[in-house]
């Protein structure tokens, strides 16, 4: 199943030379991205001070990690199987 989630991305200004590092123009810009629910791994987002975030989570897909602007529980509910009338069915 394909799900659409809000991801948080940083926008960079390109470096003028190979020696420079690109500069961040904006942080945590929301944009939508589609994911295949069967091919993602869901992880809780840990802040730099060691606390678990209640607003964000990480998704690992083949290409890399993405920070999602949804709670871990919300995304877990979207990608987990749903039980209907005693049998398991993917919705």
Care to describe what's here?
- The protein is mainly beta and 91 residues long.
- 9% of the residues lie in helices and 58% in strands.
- The chain contains one helix and seven strands.
- The strands form two sheets. It has a five-stranded antiparallel β-sheet, with helices on one face. A two-stranded antiparallel ribbon has the order 6-7.
- The longest helix is centred in the C-terminal third of the chain and has 8 residues, at 72-79.
- It is elongated and about 60 Å long.
- The termini are close together.
- The mean pLDDT is 88.
List the helices and strands and how they pair.
Elements (H helix, E strand, L loop, with lengths): L1 E12 L9 E14 L4 E6 L5 E10 L2 E5 L3 H8 L2 E3 L2 E3 L2
Number of helices: 1
Q: Secondary-structure element sequence?
A: EEEEEHEE
Q: What share of residues is helical?
A: under 10%
Residue windows where pLDDT falls under 50 for at least 5 positions: none
- Beta-strand content: over 45%
> So what's the overall shape?
elongated
Overall pLDDT, averaged?
88
Largest sheet descriptor: 5 strands, antiparallel
**Major beta sheet, strand line-up:** 2-1-5-4-3
What's the end-to-end separation, in Å? 8 Å
Structural class: mainly beta
What is the number of strand segments? Answer: 7
> Measured on Cα atoms, how large is the radius of gyration?
17 Å
What structural keywords apply?
single chain, 91 residues, mainly beta, 5-stranded antiparallel beta sheet, two-stranded antiparallel sheet, 1 helix
């Amino acid at each position: 199943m394909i799900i659409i989630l809000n991801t948080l991305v940083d926008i960079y200004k390109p470096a003028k030379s190979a020696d420079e590092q690109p500069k961040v123009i904006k942080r945590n810009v929301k944009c939508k991205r589609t994911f295949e629910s069967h091919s993602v791994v869901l992880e809780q987002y840990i802040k730099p001070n060691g606390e678990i975030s209640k607003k964000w989570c990480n998704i690992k897909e083949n290409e890399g990690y993405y920070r999602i602007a949804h709670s871990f529980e919300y995304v877990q509910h979207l990608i987990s199987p749903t039980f209907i009338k005693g049998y398991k069915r993917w919705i």
